Every structure is written in C-alpha cells, then in structure tokens.
C-alpha cells in the first residue's frame, strides 16, 4: 500500500480515521511528523469502545495472556530466606565461602574487601507446601497457601551487580539508561484495550524509598512518549494535573472544551492539518480520564469480602496491598501493563528484621491478588510476575551473629514466581547448588524471561522491533530464548 | 512485520522513471537496511564471505556467478535472489525479519540495468569544493540560493511552492524559531507597518541580536550535550554544571564561529594558555551520568563515561552511531571496533574516578574552580604572599645570623630533649576494657574496635589486627592540609598484599573520594596520601622499597602543610627513604568541612576497604608538626644523623624560623578557608601521559584486547599532519575544510531548528541506515557556504529565515498531502508543535509573568507535590519563590531521575544520553498539563487580567486582543463570536457559584490586582486558558 492512499481520506473529516497501515507507518516514522495522527486512531470515541491498535496488526501467535501485572520487588529479595532453602548453609554457618564455589565471581565493592566471607544459613524455617510441594519459608505463610497456583523459577540470573543497572536491565533489556521499558514495548506492540485509561500504568508503594526508583524505569526510551508508563498516585491527583483547577467545575470545563473544540475546528478548516483534530480528540480523552481515573482509584465500593483477601492494609492508600487491589481493578479495565514497585528489599545488614517487614508487606497482598484474579476469572488471561533485580549472597555482608546477618547483591541466581497467563502452575523450575550460589540446572537469563513474557502475550520477541538511529532495537537486545518448559 | 519507512522515503524522493538511479541515495540505503546485517562491514557476522558494502565485494564473481552484471539485471545473482520465491535461495532469508518491497526491487534492478555504477555512501564523500546551483523555470520565486535548490526539485516533480505565508504568520514562526518566544503586539504592528524592502531582514537582525537567541539555541544544544543538574544515579545528587549552560548561551549570542565552539568544548583545556572560559567549555565531555552507588566496580563505570564521551562526539559532530562499534564492528557503517577504541583513547586521559563519593559532596575530578574574579584576585594575592614567605624562610636558612645562632646552640650542647608537638602517644601497654591509654593526653584515650588482639610487641605489648578490627583515636589528628603533622609507629606486615590500610583519618576510600589522610601498605611499600577527592585532587607518595615481612619496621610520615608532594617525607627505621610521587595535585581541604564532621583517626580497618589483615602495630605517635630526620631517628631508636642537627635546630629551637613557619601556616590556612567553599565544575584536564588504551572485547571493561592509540576511523579522512594527537588534534580533524561530516551534520541541525525536520531527517545518523538527504546538493551547498563564511551560525540562520522556502504558507491541502505528505520536498512551510520549553515560556511571556534574567543556578518552578518522594532519600523539592518561579524553562532544574513533568510530558529529550532530535507526540496528558498545571492557570489569570485592562472596551475587543497577542494573528469574526460566547458562558458558570471565581484566582503564587468583579476576571482567565490551548498557541505554523 502506498502512502499516497492517504489522500483517499479527506483530511478534514471529523472522524479523522486514517487507515491502520498508514497509522502504523506514521508511527514508525518517529520524527518529522507529529504522532497525533496515530493518536487519532489510538483514541477511541466514546461510542466505539474498542482498543487502540498497536504497531502489530495482530499478535505473532495466539496469546495466552492479554495483560501483565508485574510485582517488582526492588532492591533484590533474598531468595535464600524466602524460597531457595539451603540447609548446607546452616551446617556450614560462619565458615568461609569456598573459592571452589565462588569461582572468581566478582563481588560488589561493599563486601569485596571483607577479610572473611562467612556463609550464612537462613534463620527462617522452610517447609514444603501444596500438592506440588514447593518450598517456601515461614516468612510467606499466605504465599505458601497458593503454591499450586504459582510457577517458581529458581534459576533466574542477571549480568548486573548493582541496583541501577540491574533494575534497568530487567525493565528494558539493557543496563544502560535510555531504552524503553517492557510496558512501553507492549503498549507500542499491542496497543491499549481501554479508551479511557493509559495502556501502561505504574503503582509505587508509598514510604518504601530506601532504594530509589527513577521515572526512566517506566520510560518510553526512544519510543514515542505515548507509550510512557503513567504513574497513578495515591495523592489527591492520581495522574499529574488530572483535576481541574480550584473553582473550575466539570460543567464549566465541558463548556470550555466545547468552545475550544469549535475554535480548533475552525483552525483546522483554515490550516488543513489533520493533526489539529487529533489534538481535539486528546482533549476529549483527557476529559474522560478525569472521571475514569478517579473511578478506578476509588476503592470505597469494594466489599468487605475483598479486604478479607488482601488484608486490611489494602484500605490504606499507597500501600502495596492497596496497589494490588488497584492492579486487579486496572486489569478488569483491560489496562495492558500494570507495573507495581515495592522497594525496600536491599538487606545488606539486619536482614532478618528487614525481610520480615518486607515479607509482611507483600505476602497477604499477593495472596489476595491471585485469589481475586481467580475469583473474577482474570487469572486465565492475566500474567502475574513477582521478582526483583537480582538475588543475594549466601555469605554475610558484615558481621554474622546467631540472630543477625546481611547479604550482598548476587547476580548468579535468584527466584521469581509467575501466576496465570499460561505459565505452568505448581511447577518449580531450575535449581541451584547446595551453597545457593551457582545454578545447577536450567539457567534462565533476564532476556529469556523477557522473551517468555512477550511470548505469552503473543509476541515473538525477535519481531517486535523499533528502528532508532539506524538500528532495529528490541526488548531482548540480540538475545533471549523462550523458556518453554515453564509454559502450560 | 515492521514496514520499513525508508521505502516511503525512497518512494517520495525517487526521481522520475526516466531518470538515473542515484546509488548513494537510493540503492545503498536498500542494501544497508536489508543486506548489511549479514553482508556488511562486520566480519564476524558475515555470511558466505560475501560483503555488499564494498565495490570489490559486490562485484565478486564466484563459481561463474556474478553478484552484479552491469546492464544486465537478469544475469545478476543479487537480483535473482531478491526476486526468488524459493525459500532456500530467497534474500533476505524468510526468517530474517526483512523483506524488500516491489519498489525497492525495482530500484535495484533499474540501477543494475543502468550500469550498476558504484560510489561511496553519500555522507562519506568529501564535501565538494563547489556545488553547482541548479537552474529553475520560475525564476521570480527564489529569494536566495537555497530556494533554487528547493524549487528545482519541485519543478522536477511538477510541483509548485506554496504561496507566501502572511506576514503575521511568518513573524510568529521566525520569532519562535530564533528566540523561543512569540512576538509582541508592538513587534507585530511594527512589522506589519514596515513596508520597506528590508522589513523581513530588519526583523531577523533584531531577533539574532536579541539575548533570547542564545537561550533558544542553547535549549537544543543542551539536548546534544545531555545537560542536567544531577548525576543521574541513586541519590541523583546535584552538580553545579550550570556555568557551562550559561557559557553555551553566551557563545551563541556572541556568534562564536562554530568550529571554535566545537574546539573549545572538545579540547578547550588543550588550547595554548587556555583561559578559564575555554576550560569551562570542556564540561561538554563531562555531562554524562555519574554513578555513586556503593560497591560498583569503578572501572566498569569509568569505561562507561569514556564511551559516553565518544558516543556524544559521534552523534553531535559526526552524525554517526559510533556506539554500535563498542562491542563489535559496526554492522552498517565502516567503523570497526578498533576505530571505536581509537577514539576512546582520546577521551580517557583525565584523572577521574568511576564512582562519585557518597560521604562528601565533592565534584567528580578533574574540576575547574568556579571562582569569581574577586576570588581569583584574592587567591592570587595569597599565592604570592605564600611564595614570598617560603622564600623568606629559605633565605633565613642561609642567613649568617642563623648560622651563628646554630653554632651557639651546638656549643651549648644539643643533647636529646623531648620532641615537641606530641598530641597522641599510644604504647598499647595501658590497654584495659577496650581502652588504650594516651600518654600525651590522658583525657583522650584510644579505644579498640571489634577486639584486636594484644600480643608481645616491639616494646612491651602491641596490637594484632584481623583486617576488620583495630583502634580508634577520637579527637586526635583532625588535621587540615595547611597543618604540618607527623605519624609514627612500628608495623609488622605478615605478607605483601596489593593493599592494606594501616592508619587513616577518613570515612571511606571510594565512597568518600578518600577524603582525609592515610598510610597504606601497597605490595609492602609505604604509601602516604592526603586527599580532597581521589585521584584528581590528591597528594600521594610511596616508598620504592617494600618493608620486610614478619619483622618490625618503624615508619614515620611527616608533612609540612604545603599541599605539595615535596612536603611529605617518609622514614623507615628512622632513615629518610626515596619515594615515588604518585599524585601531586592537592588544592582543597582534606577535612570534612562540607560533610558533617570529622571521622576518627583509625588503625587497622576501613569501611569498604582492605584492612591490615594479620598485621601488628606498636608505639603509635601523632605530632602536630613536621618532625625532622633526627627526631624520626630518635623515635625509631636509630642513630641520629649529625648532619640533621641544623634541621632540628631550625625547626624547634630557632625563634625567627618558628615565627616564619607560623606565619606561613596562617597564610596557607587563610587560602584554604577561601578556596574550600568555592564550587567546582567537572571539566577535562589532560594527563601528562595518556592512559594505555585497548580494544575492549565485547565492550566489557575487563576484557582487554589489542592495544590501540589515539586514532580517527580509518574510513574517514586521515588525521591531519602537524597537529597534536590529542583532543585538540581531534577538533582540528573534525573542522578541516573537506571533512565529509562535521559541516553537513551541523547545517542539517540548524535546518532542523528552523524547519522542524532536517534535510537528513535522521539528524542523529548520517550512516548507511540513516535517511538519505532529501536535497543532497542543497545540503552540500549549505555546508560549503557555512565553512567558507567562517562557520557563521547567525548568518546561516538568517539565510534560512529569509528564504522563500521558509516564507511559504504551512497550509495543507488534500493535494499537497497526497503529493508530499511529509513535506520532504518543502512544498509548504514547516508547521510544528512548540517545544516543552516554548509552551511554558510563551504562557509566561504573554501573561507578563516572565522574568528574563539570564543565567545562574537552575530554578525550581511549580511542580506537583510529592514527585520527588519516590526518588532515593526522598529529597525535598525546594520550590522557588518570587521571580525564580517565572524564569525561562531552560533554567528549570533538571533532575535526571525525576525530570520536571512539563518536560517529559511534552517530549523533551531524556538527557541521559546525547540526543539530536525530539519526537513530537500528542497525548491526553498534554491536554491535562496545558489545562490544569498551576503554571498555565496562573499565566491564564494574568493574561485574563491584561485582557481586561489592556484589551479594549468590549468583550469582543478584549478576546480578540488576547487571541492576537497569543497566536500572533487577528481572530476572524466567527472566532471572536466563539470567544465571546466562551467568555459569557464561563462568566455565567462563575456567577452561579459565588466562591468559584475567587478560588480560581488564587491558583499560583502571584496575586491579581484587586478587582471589583472576580467573576469577570475568572471568566477572562478561562478565555485566556482556552487561547493558550488553541492550536494557534500550541503550534507554530
């Protein structure tokens, strides 16, 4: 199809519909022409509640999931105290990490200079749970109840050893800043399924900011900013600048938009630029968001039975539990990518007390979320991902005592879990050695995880690309293999 | 799946069927896009040994098959493969994710049939000395040479230019493009009334002379320079880089020739007798992100910084994606890994650290002191006085009176006395309950940390260390760099290790930039250092000989307070020993004057460092003066050298000398106090010896490959003769008159500034996979002209602004949209949305709120509460007060982890890395920001107030006045009618709810004039807000 077919559409038509192919092309052009024309079709008219198309006309293969809830545990939770039980560490507690295990693996500058690297057994009790017999520590009693719904991958590994590059790597496939986040890729590839909400929504736990988060983690990188993650806050304005200024009522805003629309249509007649009408549509979507966003953020109508699932913490705005409940509400409204961040897992010292707090923040809430998704039937086509940016060392950073220890960053292995979205429930995949240091079976690289997640959404990770500065970029760089054994 | 937009571009710019196919512009892009990935410059990924990026490769004949047979597409293997439907033969292969369009196949076939003429990629062809100017039919249209190129192309395609934009439209366009602000009504009137032939030129000259010009150009330049006010990682702390931003503004305003502008930024420090301003400009190379995360591998990030410098230079000046060759040879362009690391070698020769400190706010070295002229004068005065005093002291030494006094002293008997200046003496004999007695001052005992072990020592008892335990001596040894002092102790190392911390007064090594002083063993050699910020602001010496292991050695380190390596002496067993000077560049203090108090003097261990594992220490002494050799010998129990007696006398007994030393110390302390609080900016400062450079295999910092030296890419012009092989030489190389890239890339970006899109749309990529130029001859002509006119930026922009091309109307018709949908042929004027900065600045400007103060530290305009809360450490957003709320957006504080939402919402560049162009999007978040951001609402309030007071007598006059003020054009009758309706409706709304108007009128920090009718003012504000959201405000057409 030639670009010239654009002339077949009258540029002044108020519907402003350009053919999807033209839209994708405009979209791909990425500069020189504003992307509003794309947004024209991106925006759904109130009477036409379909989705916003992405760059892919259709998925590469039938998807198992329509949307993702990504529970990001920022800071790096200790797999050795939550899931990956290593009795040998208790047996050898206090002895030096053998060089034969470390194999020259680099350490961070935080523990590299320690005179000793004493192995630290977890002080928490582990047991097997469910029909599948998955191992979970006493820190996560609610998670333990639902292991048959979860797929554990104990052999995740990454390349980065420090937070910023490691989180950036998990989110964007590159350790360096500037690439699009996974949610931005999905928005770009698959578009949105809801005309009143962004395709990529970010929720951050309040008051857990030991480890900083950066807006570039949910950034669009070189993709158009339309695909930026939009943070929904627990503050007065859930979305920046959502509320009308003080003193401006909804009806007066409506009238202002009507007149502004009229003026802009007059301008469009004069200038002939279809972009003007696309901007008028954006103002309409903004107007709709002024009701749709508060509506989704309003938990007051959730019945008490729901709070019994998530726990009463979910009543406090901004907690991880409240964000989990919001995630379900956003999933119900077909938001494509719902990214939660729960920072605070960076336990270099005082790990036992720190991880207790963190575990109690998330345990019941995760349980509630999965039950709620099951109850509402959403788990079938929603993929829930739980994990951090790396694991933690089997030796203590700082002093090891009978009741206290710390753990440094460990990129060589960590545990993540997945639920729904076509992952095999009840499976524990991959394993680590008795020291919990190296992977012994089925290593899963970050790029493999990304490839697998995209796969479940019907995307061939090698084929969702964007040309920037002459090169086709993709989430998985030039790597990544779909981890088929974890898929149902 | 991803349709390649290039096909569209080629289609658009393809000549008519009868014309000759242009290899460089039409064929090469198809080959590079679809074939080079496997048949390009990267040898490692090359398939079948075939390369299509060189003429030699493309014309290969193997087993009787020719890839290309000139004139015969039917016999050319290349054509056969691309039209094949056989999956085993088809090219590109079915699984490659690449596919040629019929049009592309047609172009390739035609090119072969026309003789398959091969040439270089257009951007690597040297800039021609002269470019022929094309003939045109409609000779009355062109106003200058530029227009002839544009028109010739239009005529080829049977198209005509658009009519001229009306004067008001052009005025708004050119005023925004050159100053970033809209014209005033007075400027509009003056221009409309100026019927002289120079009217347009008068406007352009006025705009180019405006100080706003530099601010506008700086906005774009700062994207390239990845300017920000913070480091970008973790706590994302402040860096005072704004003086660089102000330099950029000044440089554009004074129309600094672009070659010089480039040279100063790349290599200002290397210019002969470099001025402060020239050195300041090199901050360009240091604007990359800096990591402070504890525990990072420093080298990993040092390499990342150098890579960033190379990439930025590549994008900004060469328009090449050099970063592709960091890990492998470039897949599309002739840039090898070796080329990349040859450039890398230019940019790494500074004394820098890979991690910025956490415990101190010291700027990452090397830095330039941001002193005022008065401070510079004062510093110079003190430097002279210190030098004079030092000379005086030297003279006194040789003075006859001194000599005779010495002889008298000798005659009286110079017998051993107590060594003066003792502030701490720890024999480790008095060791009870973790407390270590201090015989110099019983009130300041030392204490143990984590149980060091008492063992038999050199004298009595000593302490044995584990590497993580040791001794602390609170309250002792808080020396400044202007204080003379001495440390002395017995040490017994168990074995030689690369590093062992024996004594130190600091909070950490890397995490504090080693701030303080330290005595280390490095492979057994005693190293003594005083650091403000390692390595660029440090002093360090090291003995040549290692200590004997498992034996006691007495170590004395003395320092004279001079901040010079020559002021440090090291004595082993009482004898002065030869040292190597590791660093000699200390010029700020070694105390924690700016970072919350002094650490404890400590033995044996340090935060995130290697302690003195297995070592032992005894008889630790601290003096608040520089001991002499005789005294060092005395402490070690060694024979006291007779020739050292004069020194002892001079330092301890001779009053005139002691007085001079005291005065000298006072002057040094004064200098120290003056210089310490002066901020610093990161700049380049070349090391005397370049650092060794290597190819880094896979781009990994620790995978050293082949050695390389500073070199420019082999496929580009050779490095010029007679220039130094350093960054200055690199700047010469870039600005030589036939360099194929620098001038083309530069004029293209200025074209982009005026027309929204460059002649090469990918202004960040002139390589094989970038867009070919829409008007290659024009690009060459502009580049050559720019060069010949002395890289004169203002002159270039004036040419563009006054061209008939730029003066065209931007109106679109269905016919234009059909024939030139992306305006690549320039069939019409350029229309585009205002940038993030312009949108806010315009609102402030028309409302009368804008405060036009130029330069200075960045400011903090309104932003929603809590935005910085997710950032590490939950920093407080120190919102500005008063005038600083209303500065141009260029001065808005740029925190990398949480940029101002006005910027991110309106497509500003990311500022993590170099960026040459911004996308333009249209999103509902933009609508929310323009309607509800207090900054806009406040501006609307004040614009509403102006409308009421300055706009005329009737509502119709008033709304029309405001419309014209913002959009730069007169409203039509119909538009006035809608605006009046808007006013009336809004007023009715406010009248309905008594308090609503007053609520609206309190948005923002500035108070409105007292008004009798708040509802009228609120309605006027609403009208103003609507106008600020109107296409005529948001777009410049």
Question: Can you describe what's shown?
Answer:
The complex is a heterodimer of chains A (488) and B (1037). Chain A is α/β, with parallel strands linked by helices and 488 residues long. Chain A is 32% helix and 16% strand. Chain A has one domain: Alkaline Phosphatase, subunit A (3-Layer(aba) Sandwich). Chain A has 14 helices and 19 strands. In chain A, strands 2, 5, 7, 8, 9, 10, 13, 14 and 17 form a nine-stranded mixed sheet that branches. In chain A, strands 1-6 form a two-stranded antiparallel sheet. Chain A is globular, with a radius of gyration of 24 Å. With 1037 residues, chain B is an alpha+beta fold. Chain B has five domains: 5-119, no CATH class; 129-159 and 741-829, no CATH class; 257-370 and 679-736, no CATH class; 417-639, Jelly Rolls, CATH 2.60.120; 932-1036. In chain B, the strands form six sheets. Chain B has a ten-stranded antiparallel sheet with strand order 5-6-7-10-20-12-13-14-15-19, with no helix packed on it. In chain B, strands 4, 8, 9, 11, 16, 17, 18 and 21 form an eight-stranded antiparallel sheet that branches. A two-stranded antiparallel ribbon of chain B has the order 1-2. In chain B, strand 1 and strand 2 (65-66) form a beta hairpin. In chain B, helix 15 (298-318) packs across helix 16 (337-347), helix 31 packs across helix 32 and helix 31 runs parallel beside helix 34 (1014-1028). Chain B is globular. Mean pLDDT of chain B is 93; it is low at 1-16. Chains A and B meet through helix 1, helix 9 and helix 10 of A and helix 1, helix 15, helix 26, strand 25 and helix 28 of B.
What labels would you give this structure?
heterodimer; A: 488 residues; alpha/beta; Alkaline Phosphatase, subunit A; two-stranded antiparallel ribbon; 19 strands; 32% helix; globular; disordered N terminus; B: 5 domains; eight-stranded antiparallel sheet
Structure in a nutshell:
The complex is a heterodimer of chains A (488) and B (1037). Chain A has helices spanning 20-29, 36-42, 79-82, 87-91, 99-102, 141-145, 163-172, 182-190, 250-271, 274-297, 304-310, 320-332, 351-375, 446-456; strands spanning 52-53, 67-72, 126-129, 134-137, 150-157, 191-192, 200-204, 230-231, 337-341, 382-387, 391-396, 407-410, 414-420, 428-429, 431-432, 439-441, 444-445, 466-468, 471-473. Chain A is of the alpha/beta class and 488 residues long.
């Amino acid at each position: 199809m030639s670009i010239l077919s654009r002339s077949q559409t009258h540029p002044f038509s108020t519907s402003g519909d350009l053919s999807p192919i033209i839209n994708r092309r405009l979209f791909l052009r990425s500069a020189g022409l504003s992307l509003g024309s794309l947004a024209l079709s991106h925006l759904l008219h109130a009477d036409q509640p379909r989705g916003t198309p992405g760059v892919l006309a259709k998925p590469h293969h039938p998807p198992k999931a329509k949307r993702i809830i990504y529970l990001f545990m920022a800071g790096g939770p200790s797999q050795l105290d939550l899931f990956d039980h290593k009795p040998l560490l208790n047996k050898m507690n206090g002895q030096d990490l053998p060089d034969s295990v470390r194999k020259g693996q680099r350490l961070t500058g935080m523990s590299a200079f320690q005179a000793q690297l004493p192995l630290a057994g977890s002080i928490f009790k582990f047991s097997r749970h469910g029909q599948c017999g998955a191992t979970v520590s006493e820190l996560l009693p609610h998670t333990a109840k639902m292991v048959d719904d979860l797929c554990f991958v104990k052999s995740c590994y990454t390349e980065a050893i420090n937070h910023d590059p490691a989180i950036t790597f998990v989110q964007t496939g590159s350790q360096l800043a500037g690439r699009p986040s996974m949610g931005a890729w999905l928005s770009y590839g698959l578009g949105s399924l809801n005309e009143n909400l962004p395709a990529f929504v970010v929720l951050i736990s309040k008051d857990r900011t030991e480890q900083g988060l950066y807006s570039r983690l949910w950034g669009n990188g070189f993709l158009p900013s339309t695909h930026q993650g939009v943070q929904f806050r627990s503050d007065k304005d859930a979305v920046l600048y959502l509320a009308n200024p003080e003193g401006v009522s909804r009806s007066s805003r409506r009238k202002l938009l009507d007149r502004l629309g009229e003026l802009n249509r007059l301008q469009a007649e004069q200038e002939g630029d279809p972009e003007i009408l696309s901007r008028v549509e954006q103002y309409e979507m903004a107007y709709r968001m002024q009701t749709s966003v508060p509506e989704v953020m309003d938990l007051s109508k959730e019945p008490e039975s729901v709070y019994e699932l998530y726990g009463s913490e979910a009543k406090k705005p901004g907690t991880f539990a409240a964000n989990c409940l919001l995630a379900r509400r956003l999933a119900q409204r077909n938001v494509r990518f719902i990214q939660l961040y729960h920072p605070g897992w960076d336990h270099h010292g005082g790990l036992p007390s720190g991880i207790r707090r963190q575990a109690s923040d998330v345990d019941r809430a995760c349980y509630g979320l999965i039950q709620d998704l099951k109850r509402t039937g959403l788990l079938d086509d929603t993929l829930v991902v739980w994990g951090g940016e790396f694991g933690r060392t089997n030796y203590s950073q700082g002093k090891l005592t009978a009741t206290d220890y710390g753990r440094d960053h460990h990129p060589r292995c960590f545990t993540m879990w997945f639920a729904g979205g076509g992952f095999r429930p009840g499976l524990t995949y991959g394993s680590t050695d008795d020291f919990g240091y190296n992977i012994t079976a089925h290593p899963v690289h970050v790029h493999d995880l990304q490839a697998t997640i995209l796969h479940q959404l019907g995307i061939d990770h090698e084929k969702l690309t964007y040309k920037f500065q002459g090169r086709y970029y993709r989430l998985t760089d030039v790597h990544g293999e779909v981890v088929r054994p974890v898929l149902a | 799946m991803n349709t390649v937009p290039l096909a569209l571009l080629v289609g658009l710019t393809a000549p008519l069927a009868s014309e000759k196919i242009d290899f460089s512009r039409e064929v090469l892009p198809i080959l590079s896009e679809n074939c080079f990935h496997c048949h390009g410059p990267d040898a490692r990924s090359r398939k079948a040994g075939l390369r299509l990026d060189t003429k030699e490769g493309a014309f290969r004949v193997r087993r009787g098959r020719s890839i290309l047979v000139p004139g015969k597409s039917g016999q050319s293997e290349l054509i056969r493969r691309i039209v094949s439907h056989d999956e085993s033969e088809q090219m590109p292969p079915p699984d490659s994710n690449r596919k040629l369009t019929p049009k592309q196949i047609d172009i390739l076939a035609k090119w072969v049939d026309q003789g398959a003429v091969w040439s270089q990629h257009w951007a690597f062809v040297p800039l021609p000395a002269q470019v022929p100017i094309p003939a045109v039919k409609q000779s009355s249209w062109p106003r200058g040479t530029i227009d002839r190129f544009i028109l010739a192309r239009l005529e080829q395609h049977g198209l005509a230019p658009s009519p001229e934009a009306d004067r008001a439209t052009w005025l708004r366009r050119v005023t925004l493009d050159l100053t970033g602000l809209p014209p005033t009504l007075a400027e509009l009137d003056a221009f409309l009334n100026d019927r002289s032939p120079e009217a347009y030129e008068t406007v352009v000259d006025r705009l180019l002379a405006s100080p706003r010009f530099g601010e506008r150009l700086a906005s774009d330049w700062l994207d390239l320079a990845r300017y920000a006010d913070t480091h970008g990682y973790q706590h994302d702390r402040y860096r005072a880089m704004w003086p660089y931003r102000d330099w950029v503004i000044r440089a554009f305003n004074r129309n600094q020739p672009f070659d010089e502008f480039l040279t100063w930024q790349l290599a200002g420090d290397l210019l002969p007798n470099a001025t402060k301003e020239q050195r300041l400009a090199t901050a360009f190379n240091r604007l990359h992100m800096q990591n402070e995360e504890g525990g990072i591998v420093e080298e990993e990030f040092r390499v990342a910084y150098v890579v960033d410098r190379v990439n930025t230079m590549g994008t900004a000046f060469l328009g090449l994606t050099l970063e592709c060759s960091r890990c492998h040879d470039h897949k599309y362009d002739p840039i090898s890994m070796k080329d990349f690391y040859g450039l890398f070698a230019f940019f790494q020769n500074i004394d820098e650290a890979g991690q910025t400190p956490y415990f101190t706010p010291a700027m990452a070295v090397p830095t330039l002191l941001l002193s005022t002229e008065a401070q510079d004068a004062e510093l110079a005065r003190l430097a002279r006085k210190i030098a004079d005093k030092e000379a005086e002291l030297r003279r006194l030494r040789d003075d006859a009176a001194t000599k005779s006094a010495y002889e008298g002293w000798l005659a009286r008997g110079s017998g051993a006395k107590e060594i003066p200046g003792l502030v701490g003496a720890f024999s480790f004999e008095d060791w009870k309950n973790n407390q270590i007695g201090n015989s110099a001052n019983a009130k300041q005992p030392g204490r143990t940390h984590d149980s060091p072990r008492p063992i038999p020592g050199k004298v009595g008892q000593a302490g044995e260390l584990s590497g993580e335990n040791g001794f602390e001596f609170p309250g002792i040894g808080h020396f400044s760099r202007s204080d003379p002092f001495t440390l002395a102790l017995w040490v017994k190392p168990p074995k030689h290790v690369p590093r062992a911390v024996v004594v130190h007064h600091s909070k950490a090594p890397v995490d504090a930039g080693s701030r303080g002083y330290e005595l280390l063993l490095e492979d057994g050699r005693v190293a003594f250092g005083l650091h403000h910020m390692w390595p660029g602001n440090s002093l360090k010496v090291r003995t040549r000989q290692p200590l004997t292991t498992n034996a006691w050695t007495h170590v004395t380190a003395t320092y004279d307070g001079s901040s010079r390596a020559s002021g440090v002496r090291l004595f082993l067993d009482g004898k002065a020993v030869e040292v190597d000077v590791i660093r000699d560049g200390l010029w700020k203090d070694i105390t924690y004057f700016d970072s919350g108090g002094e650490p404890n003097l400590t033995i044996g261990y340090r935060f995130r460092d290697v302690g003195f594992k297995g070592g032992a220490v005894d008889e630790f002494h601290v003096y608040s003066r520089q001991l002499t050799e005789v005294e060092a010998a005395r402490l070690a129990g060694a024979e006291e050298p007779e020739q050292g007696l004069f020194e002892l006398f001079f330092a301890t007994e001779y009053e005139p000398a002691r007085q001079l030393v005291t005065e000298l110390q006072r002057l040094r302390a004064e200098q120290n106090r003056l210089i310490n609080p002066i901020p610093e900016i990161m700049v380049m400062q070349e090391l005397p010896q370049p650092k060794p450079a290597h190819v880094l295999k896979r781009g990994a910092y620790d995978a050293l490959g082949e050695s390389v030296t500073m070199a420019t890419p082999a496929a580009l012009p050779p490095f010029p003769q007679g220039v130094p092989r350093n960054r200055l030489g690199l700047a010469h190389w870039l600005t030589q008159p036939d360099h194929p890239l620098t001038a083309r890339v530069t004029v293209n970006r200025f074209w982009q500034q005026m027309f929204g899109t460059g002649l090469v749309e990918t202004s960040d990529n002139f390589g094989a996979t970038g867009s070919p130029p829409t008007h290659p001859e024009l690009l060459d002509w502009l580049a050559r002209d720019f060069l010949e006119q002395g890289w004169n930026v203002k002159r270039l922009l004036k040419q563009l602004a006054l061209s008939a091309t730029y003066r065209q109307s931007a109106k679109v018709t269905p016919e234009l949209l059909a024939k030139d949908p992306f305006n690549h042929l320039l069939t019409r004027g350029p229309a585009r949305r205002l940038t993030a900065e312009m949108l806010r600045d315009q609102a402030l400007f028309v409302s009368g709120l804008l405060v036009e103060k130029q330069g200075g530290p960045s400011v903090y305009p309104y932003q929603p509460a809590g935005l910085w809360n997710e950032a590490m450490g939950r920093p407080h957003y120190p919102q500005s007060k008063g005038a600083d709320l209303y500065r141009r957006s260029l001065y808005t504080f740029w925190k990398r982890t949480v940029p101002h939402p006005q910027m991110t919402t309106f497509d500003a560049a990311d500022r993590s890395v170099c960026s040459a162009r911004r996308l333009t999007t249209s999103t509902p978040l933009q609508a929310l920001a323009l309607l509800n951001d207090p900054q806009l609402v406040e501006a609307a309030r004040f614009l509403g107030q102006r409308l009421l007071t300055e706009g005329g007598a009737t509502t119709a006059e008033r709304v029309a006045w405001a419309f014209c003020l913002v959009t730069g054009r007169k409203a039509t009758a119909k538009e006035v009618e809608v605006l009046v309706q808007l006013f009336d409706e809004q007023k009715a709304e406010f009248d309905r709810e008594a308090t609503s108007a007053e609520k609206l009128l309190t948005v923002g920090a500035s108070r409105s004039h007292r008004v009798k009718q708040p509802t009228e003012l609120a309605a006027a504000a609403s009208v103003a807000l609507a106008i600020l959201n109107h296409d005529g405000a948001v777009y410049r057409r």
